[in-house]
Automatic annotation (TrEMBL):
Its cofactor is pyridoxal 5'-phosphate. Gene3D superfamilies: Aspartate Aminotransferase, domain 1, Type I PLP-dependent aspartate aminotransferase-like (Major domain). CDD domains: CGS_like. SUPFAM superfamilies: PLP-dependent transferases (SSF53383). NCBIfam families: PRK05968.1. Belongs to the trans-sulfuration enzymes family. Transmembrane segments: none annotated. This is Aminotransferase class I/II-fold pyridoxal phosphate-dependent enzyme. It comes from Pantoea dispersa. Keywords: Pyridoxal phosphate.
Length: 388
């Protein structure tokens, strides 16, 4: 039906078929294996002539229900779910590169992605050139001889946005596969496949779960890329998602569009107010100065800001009442994390300056609490930590 209006994401996520016994939610198939009714159907499954589930390391019906939803939500052919965002990222990268391959990666990616490329991949002769994702000439030059262009837009900590349309075209012309970490925007606010990106990965531990009770990851791409991972990589690395966690992610997805609207509204308000605060020297939020070519349809609740030298950062963190100190983000609860913690961690690879994040930077994940209460908390903590 080429003329049919595409189904809205909110409807896709809340509408479901009736399940067994009229259940409105898909059943949780808590079974490691699935048996066959007769000899011929078992042989057919092994020949690849049937898609009857076999074993939950490779195909569980609850996980499959999640994968189908997410593929439709991202506008991709197919999806594979994993036990963590890092499992999704490592499986996707390893499906593209061979020993000796060159990866081009934008600066300021998620720290464990950075360490995976700099440490683990290097052991197999896979080298990574880090480039400024805003500098198209630099990306174009680096693509020569590369197999993979790895993007994260907006990037971790500094929230700089990359021009997905342009970079996808550059990479395609150079015969380079493009992969993007789209965890920040979620499929609600950015669908990179629409702009020619080949593979999308998510840490579903963040907004897609939304309830801070699951660690999971997702890869969405064409049938060709997904089949490549499902046949040659994921069965052997074995980082599969459990049926229970797939069910929790489907629950999270039902409210994802509503939660994203609220995260967007609260975080934008706080970012604008922080920009005008005398003890704040910079705010890194992609919505404050969006480029004309932006592919973001909206903004999530994660951003960072730099404080002046007069603010004692440990005191600021300790004085906050509603923002708890912790890693991760994308849940219902507001969190704070100073950049210095990641800078210390990154120096494991002598890369504090490559990482290029100011130690005056503080990242917050704006949860679903009342915005005014969050603002009151930020201002009282800034006041308590300011010394003249
Ligand atoms: C958390 C995170 C990851 C890793 O995901 P896990 O689910 O923790 O393995 C990857 N990318 C980004 C941007 C993240 O924030």
């Amino acid at each position: 039906m080429p003329n049919a209006k595409p189904i809205a994401q909110q409807t896709l996520l809340t509408h479901d078929q009736r399940h067994e016994q009229g259940a409105v939610t898909p059943p949780i198939y808590q079974s490691s294996l699935f048996t066959f009714s007769d000899y011929d159907s078992m042989i057919a499954r092994f020949r690849g002539e049937s898609d009857q589930p076999l074993y939950s390391r490779v195909d569980n019906p609850t996980v499959k229900a999640l994968q189908d939803k997410v593929a439709a939500l991202e506008g991709g052919d197919a999806c594979l779910a994993f036990a963590s965002g890092m499992a999704a990222i490592s499986n996707a990268i390893l499906s593209v590169v061979q020993p000796g391959a060159k990866v081009v990666c934008v600066n300021h990616v998620y720290p464990d992605t950075y360490r995976f490329l700099r440490g683990f991949c290097q052991r197999f002769g896979i080298t990574t050139q880090f480039v400024d994702g805003d500098d198209e000439a630099a990306v174009a030059a680096a693509l020569s001889g590369a197999s993979l262009l790895y993007l994260e837009s907006p990037s971790s900590w500094v929230m700089s946005e990359q021009n997905l349309r342009q970079l996808a075209t550059l990479a395609r012309d150079a015969g380079v596969v493009t992969l993007i970490d789209n965890s920040w925007a979620s499929p609600i606010f950015q669908q990179p496949l629409l702009y020619g990106i080949d593979i999308v990965v998510h840490s579903a531990s963040k907004y897609i779960s939304g309830h801070s009770d699951v660690v999971a990851g997702l890869v969405i791409a064409s049938h060709q890329h997904i089949n490549n991972i499902a046949r040659h990589i994921s069965p052997f690395l074995g980082g599969k998602l459990s049926a229970n966690e797939a069910s929790l992610l489907m629950r999270g997805l039902r409210t994802l569009p509503l939660r994203m609207k609220q995260h967007q509204q609260s975080a934008l308000q706080l970012a604008e107010k922080l920009r005008d605060h005398p003890q704040v020297s910079a705010v890194c939020h992609p919505g404050l100065n969006p480029p004309a070519w932006s592919t973001l349809r909206g903004y999530s609740g994660l951003f960072s800001f730099a404080v002046t030298e007069q603010v004692d950062i440990p005191q600021f963190c300790n004085a906050l009442q509603l923002f708890h100190m912790g890693v991760s983000w994308g849940g219902f609860e507001s969190l704070v994390m100073p950049a210095i913690s990641v800078i210390n961690q990154a120096s494991e690879f002598n890369s504090a300056q490559d990482f290029g994040v100011s130690p005056r930077l503080i990242r917050i994940s704006v949860g679903l609490e009342e915005t005014d209460d969050l603002w009151t908390d930020l201002t009282q903590a800034l006041a308590a930590a300011t010394h003249r």
